[in-house]
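User: Hey, quick favor. My workstation is busy. Could you predict this chain's structure for me?
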Amino acid sequence: MIGCTTDGECSSALAFQEDSVVVVLFAGDGITAKASVARGLAADLDGAVARAVDALGAPGPLTVALSESMGVSGAVLVDALDRHLQNTLVVGGTAGDQWRFEGTHQLFGREVLTDSVVLLTFHGDFAVSVGVESGWCPMGRRAKVTRAEGAQLLELDGQPALEVFRATFGSHIAPTPEHPFAVFDGSDRFYLRAPFPHLFENGAIQLAGDIPEGAEVQLTEAGRDQILDGARSAVRSARASFPGEQPTGLLVFSCAARKQVLGSRTAEELDALQADGLDVDVAGFYTYGEIGPLVTGGATRFHNETVVAVLVGR
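Assistant: No problem, here it is.
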């Protein structure tokens, strides 16, 4: 058994909740699972991940990762997972604490942990697919990240990042999760980095994940309807690439920042996920960062403000 604390839960049993426990049981003829844990991420992240992956042995078609979100970089963690976990679809999210940002916990068997990532890999005769979408649309011009330090975006095209942001939205507007940065992945596909409303004298913008120097980025916009459409698109993408005959379950990892922006309409996200007549059990939670590839078979990425929808079945 693995698990973590959240920023809210969703399920076909209790819909959207903020004070529930969601338990998902995987069972089927010939299906087995193995769990492992990487401890002490802050001290030796890459080594801890490597040891946990070694303990898993050869991974199956699907591996779920649930991680610490404070004190470690989600992007650096996911890069390590991508290096060490080969030939498996890696999905999941980082733990939440109901937007308090005080501390999160991970569950491994009977242990309650911090500073860890728990892994569960599945073997057997089953089908799996993934859809990763947000609903945000790029706007304005693309810019090159000319200076960044971890999750702090310092310069775009040689200008202070805050100046570029305010040139788009106005001098009185502070960066917020309502306008994340699209970080392009060598094509028209992109992952998101959410900005925090902290103002720095040097014009930097603090992001909810590392951003690489040299990357092309673009500011984005979306209304609540478009954000909900992103959830629908994630499931449609997963259905379009599902290799089996019949999906039976949907795992969902959605972002706590989406929940903040959706506000009173957060409960509608589950309806959007179940649109188009998808009749399967649904379970998931709101994370502080989502884990999954931009496309099936692609590199594992760390996302903000995104829905990772995972279909499983036969």
